[in-house]
Amino acid sequence: ESSFEKEWTVKWPCIQPLKNDPEKALCTVCNDTFRVTHQGKRDVERHLTTEHKRLAQMFKVCKPLTSVFAAGTLQNKVINAEVLFTGFILEHNLPLEAAAHAAPLFRKMFPDSAIAKKYGLAVDGSSDTGTESMYLLVVRIFDINRGFGTCLVSDSRAKGIFAQVSDAFKKYNIPWENVIGLSLDNASVNMGRHNGLYTQLEKQNKSTYTAGCSYHVIHNTISYAAKAFAEGTRFNVDDFLIDLFYYFDKSTKRQASHRALKQYPSLKSYFASQSEGVQDPSNFLSDQKLVIGFSTRMTTQKHNLLPTKEAAIVKGCRSFLVAACQYAFSHLPFTNVLLQHAEVLQFENREVADFDSLVYFVERFPTLKAKLDDKMDQLYDQWTAYKLLPDSVVENGRIDKIWSQLGRKKQEDGARKFDFLFKIAKRILVLPHSNAEEERIFSTMRKNKTTFRASLSNKTTLPSILTCKTNCFNQTPCYTFVPSKSLLQNAKSAASTYNSDHS
Question: Using an 8 Å Cβ cutoff, are 420 and 386 in contact?
């Protein structure tokens, strides 16, 4: 194998040795490193005739951070343009390689623009071939969700995932006692009673409230109910709706409408051919009073279905409701004590709310107890003042907005009127009830790592994109986003750091 030769620097001054790595060389023009172990001098010549030219042209327009801000307003505007266009690429999930054509395109589109003449974004390739999975960590704080980070998990068992999450907490110096709520989907690796992830986490903090995703439970509730309806009526609504969708989706509007309407005689024939058989437990409503929908009942009567045939539909509806109730009551946290105490925040029910619910949360969470244990008398005084508030004191709105208003209220001396009460309210309001927000971020990730951007690094590029989209472009369109001065400085600083780390 070859190693770096000093004579190369004499012949090509831009080719320099790389510290502590004689197998690589550094090109100071294009700021790229490459191996010289294969053919030595030939490796250098190959670089200078291929990748060197492309990278040198792109980096030519990228100035050092100090020279950029010393140049004044124009350079700041250029950086602002580069940041905004980067936001455009991120928001719309465009291939990063599009940035390579942006600079020459802008110069051609806006030949009189001084900003376009100096604009330039450099892109680099990625050859990520990792086999690790991303495990997303999202921190929920009062008012908003913030992207916290991602873990790369090679061991998808609960212990392996916990180890990576624990390392992430140590990296950011987050103690486990600060974790008051944990939201997970309902997979056994997460919610298993014996070896699930939540059992590993609760060993670190027993006071943590763990919630499975109620939205998934509701979805499963409907699925089980629909299955019961199909078994009771021999008519699968899911299959019919899917077929109907594809009729509309794959045909013109007129053809789809015609095809769908052609199915109606078959449906009518089906309902007219059902055999008798009605379950009527004593604790159920009678068939006549069972709510199946006014339109449904009127349709069955309009088409002269016999009462015994109509009963088949009612039987299916009854099976649907029974299955839905059974699944929901067995899986949703209707009797959870913490959620029952959480109702103390309902502003409209403040007059009948109990102070004991506040005491429950103070005792439940050690971090809250440490702050309020010797201030319970002041907390009770604030609680009394809160219960006496008139309805007009807050604007109608979501419960988090109401408590945000109460948390900002001040006394005559300028002190917060409900500061202790607000500490409890904030913790209750961030407790999870589903993992819908996290699922949205996973959907965002799937939209970003596509066949056109299949090589995004799981360790650097993709987590950075997700962080930007979650924290900057979640509800703000790229054309209304206003980069702060510190962001513009950090953008160039990050580019310099990246170039230094890869040199």
Answer: no
Name the DSSP class of 178: G
Taking only the tens place, the pLDDT of each residue in 314-328 is 788 888 888 888 888
Rg of the chain taking only CA atoms, in angstroms: 32
Give, in order, the Cα–Cα distances in Å from 148 to each of 138, 184, 299, 359, 449.
Answer: 5, 16, 53, 31, 19
Q: Tell me the C-alpha distance between 49 and 220, whole Å.
A: 60
- Distance CA(420)–CA(383), nearest Å, equals 9
Give the integer Cα–Cα distance in Å for 379 and 358.
Answer: 9
Looking at the DSSP assignment, which residues form a beta bridge with residue 478? none
Please give the C-alpha separations between residue 483 and each of 93, 208, 490, 491, in angstroms, as whole numbers.
20, 37, 11, 10
Which residue positions in the chain have pLDDT lower than 50?
A: 61-71, 125-129, 144-145, 147, 254, 256, 259-260, 264, 267-280
Tell me the one-letter amino acid at 8.
W
In the numeric block, the tokens 């807050």 are attached to 394
Is-contact 327 295, C-beta < 8 A? no
Is residue 130 within 8 Å of 159, Cβ to Cβ?
no
Per-residue confidence (pLDDT) for residue 145, from 0 to 100: 46
- Cα(216)–Cα(436) distance, integer angstroms: 9
Burial status of residue 457 (CB atoms within 10 A of its CB: 0-12, 13-18, 19 or more): middle
Which DSSP category does 305 fall into? Answer: -
CB 385 within 8 A of CB 415: no
Q: Which of the 8 DSSP states describes residue 451?
A: G
Answer yes or no: are the C-beta atoms of 481 and 87 closer than 8 Å: yes
Residues contacting residue 1 through CB under 8 Å, at least 6 positions apart: 23, 37, 38
Buried b (16+ CB within 10 A) or exposed e, 355-381: eebbbbbbebbbbbeeebeeeeeebee
Which class for 145: exposed (0-12), middle (13-18), buried (19 or more C-beta within 10 A)?
A: middle
Say how far apart CA 193 and CA 207 lie, in whole Å.
17
DSSP codes, 308-348: HHHHHHHHHHHHHHHHHHHHHHHHS-TT-HHHHHHGGG-GG
**Is this structure's pTM higher than 0.85?**
no
Residue with the two structure tokens 């971090």:
367
CB 386, CB 418: distance < 8 Å:
yes
Q: Where are the domains of the chain?
A: 6-60, 65-125+455-501, 133-207, 216-331, 337-429
Report H helices in 18-72.
41-49, 51-60, 65-70
